[in-house]
Amino acid sequence: MNAVPAADSLTRSVEDYLKAIYRLSPGGEPAATSEIAHLLDLSAPSVSGMIKRLSEQGLLEHAPYRGVSLTAEGRRVALRMVRRHRVIESYLVGWLGYSWDAVHDEAERLEHAVSDELIERMAASLGNPGVDPHGDPIPTAEGDVAEVVSTPLAELPVGTTVAIVRVHAADAERLRYLAELGLKPGAVVSVADRRPFRGPITVSTPAGDRVLSVEMAADLLCVRQEESA
Amino acid sequence: MNAVPAADSLTRSVEDYLKAIYRLSPGGEPAATSEIAHLLDLSAPSVSGMIKRLSEQGLLEHAPYRGVSLTAEGRRVALRMVRRHRVIESYLVGWLGYSWDAVHDEAERLEHAVSDELIERMAASLGNPGVDPHGDPIPTAEGDVAEVVSTPLAELPVGTTVAIVRVHAADAERLRYLAELGLKPGAVVSVADRRPFRGPITVSTPAGDRVLSVEMAADLLCVRQEESA
DNA sequence: ATCTAGAGTTAGGCTACACTAAACTTGGAG
DNA sequence: CTCCAAGTTTAGTGTAGCCTAACTCTAGAT
Predict the structure, then answer these.
(1) CA atoms within 13 A of residue A70's CA, in its CB half-sphere
(2) Of A191, B52, B64, B206, which has the most beta carbons under 10 Å away?
(3) Torsion angle of alpha carbons A166, A99, A116, A137, nearest 10°?
(4) Which of A53, A25, A55, A27 is nearest to A39 (CA)?
(5) CA neighbours within 13 Å on the CB side: how many for B200?
(6) Whole-prediction pTM value?
(7) What is d(CA B67, CA B80) in angstroms, rounded to the nearest whole number?
(8) Which residue is nearest to nucleotide D25 (CA to C1')?
(9) Shortest Cα distance from A1 to chain B (angstroms)?
């Protein structure tokens, strides 16, 4: 009745730890125990214990009191999980009518259960997209990520015209709100006004002006748009 | 990062036990510890221990040394898992190009990870089918199962014309072989010959005659076909 | 140069779920 | 009616992964 690959068979927990550490070390610099604990909603000692086990397994490099970083193998596993997560999110939005604010939890559970086969079939049926519904790049099956250099809208000067390429809002409510405002990946907007002292930012969109807090604008990653014509 | 329903939160193991017990008590009569152990590939003491826990949780009725049966609540959970399993199998075949012999393991893992929401969306996108690719009935979200009364092809007399409604082969190889022979749910066949002493059975199909062992024929569940014209 | 707050680790404990070995029930054979 | 084999349960362990409490290290303030 049961017949799971089992060869590698990393547990859900292990996969979550590796993914979290990957998230926390964008450049490869070590991640702190407390950061991991906070991200995974666990106690610091639990994380300490798991770090020890994963180091012994060769998935992490641990300098006590100095933080952890992924080994090549750990990074491979983490990227595999990220690919899974983003392919699943894309599939749910693309084929099953989910909205982009509702896919995270589902993907969080499914990413541990799907086979590589299924992920590849999902990706293929979507035309092997390069980014997920939030604009986050989907690593290839070989583990390559195409990171686009982008700037938070919050840091752009007045007058700039940009395309939103990525939306990093954590929670569903924000995502829903941003979608209502038309602020999704692909949208072309320009910064119309910025109030001082971290005051609200006004952006012009094809559908009208929107006023955003700085925190909200920090979630919108943009690339400068070439002026056409 | 994690936000799973959690309210009910039965573990994978528990879900597997309940599903196994459901499978073993088609009529509600108790299932034996050893049968459960065999089906789940566990030791008998492990099963005994779990039975105790699940009885305390009100999911099982346990008469020591006499076997276990599901409570109403246990049955509800089991049927939910069966629905999940069969909807997933149907979806993989219907939309992701899987063949019917390749879906079992995938469904076995996914059934524990999907949300009710996703199952309903999958079912809807298939037009809420009543049976899965093997012809097994899919319980409704409310927990009703429409069992069709069927007879194993192995028990039919020569001359009978039947429609195959359900194929119970356990392993992928057999399923692949049967598919090659055109012996799938929906196929209309008639029993052309039966050799004595559990000898081979010959069935006529639109695509030609097929010779099957009794064991193979026992996997093909059929309903008598009304003679038309 | 020292002290101390805060981060990190170790110690010890708990639950879920598996295992083997040993003890117990049951029902059928004699 | 007794005995035994098969099946079941109890007893005792082990591992994964979590927790709290207590201890240790590091780095910044004085």
Answers:
(1) 24
(2) A191
(3) -10
(4) A25
(5) 6
(6) 0.92
(7) 23
(8) A65
(9) 6
- Asked whether the beta carbons of B54 and B16 are under 8 A apart, the reply is no
Cα B28 to Cα A3, A229, B32, B54, distances in angstroms = 27, 75, 12, 17
**Distance between CA B198 and CA B211 in Å, rounded?**
13
Cβ distance of A114 and B121 shorter than 8 Å: no
* Residue type at position B225: Q
Question: Most distant CA pair in chain A: distance in Å?
Answer: 64
What pLDDT shows up at residue B27? Answer: 85
Residues B62-103: tens digit of each pLDDT: 999 999 999 999 999 999 999 999 999 999 999 999 999 999
Q: Test B40 with A1 for CB contact under 8 angstroms.
A: yes
Kind and range of the H or E run holding B67:
strand B67-70
Please report residues of B whose CB lies closer than 8 A to that of A4.
105, 108-109
Tokens 């919050």 found at: A154
How many Å apart are CA A200 and CA A225, to the nearest integer?
A: 22
DSSP-derived secondary structure for B190-206: EEEEE-TTT--EEEEET
